[in-house]
């Protein structure tokens, strides 16, 4: 399992680099291209892989989120 995850991480890192360069060449800014590349490259990981997600929102949005999700 560990070896498989290490191979997935290596493939992910390479794919992020390739996609970021592609997006920059297509006219995207560096920060936007990096975010999109990271998001798209995530598909190489298996479903059991741990993913950290950070969400920011104001109080009104948080209340609305809980209303719809609970």
Index terms:
single chain, 70 residues, mainly alpha, 3 helices, 67% helix, flat
Structure description:
There is one protein chain. This protein is mostly helical and 70 residues long. The chain has 3 helices and no strands. The chain starts with a helix and ends with a helix.
Major sheet characteristics: none
Distance between the termini: 35 Å
Q: Please identify the structural class as seen in this structure.
A: mainly alpha
Global shape:
flat
How much helical structure, as a percent, in the residues? 55-70%
Strand content: under 5%
- Gyration radius (Cα, Å) is 16 Å
The arrangement of helices and strands along the chain is HHH
Ranges where pLDDT stays below 50 over 5 or more residues in a row are none
Secondary structure elements and pairings:
Layout (H helix, E strand, L loop, with lengths): L1 H24 L4 H12 L17 H11 L1
Helix pairs in contact: 1-2
Summarize the model shown.
By secondary structure, the chain is mostly helical. The chain is flat and about 40 Å long.
């Amino acid at each position: 399992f560990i070896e498989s995850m290490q191979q997935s991480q290596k493939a992910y890192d390479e794919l992020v680099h390739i996609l970021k360069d592609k997006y920059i060449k297509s006219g995207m800014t560096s920060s936007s291209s990096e975010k999109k590349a990271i998001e798209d490259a995530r598909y190489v990981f298996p479903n059991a892989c741990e993913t950290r997600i950070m969400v920011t929102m104001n109080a009104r949005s948080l209340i609305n989120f809980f209303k719809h999700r609970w």
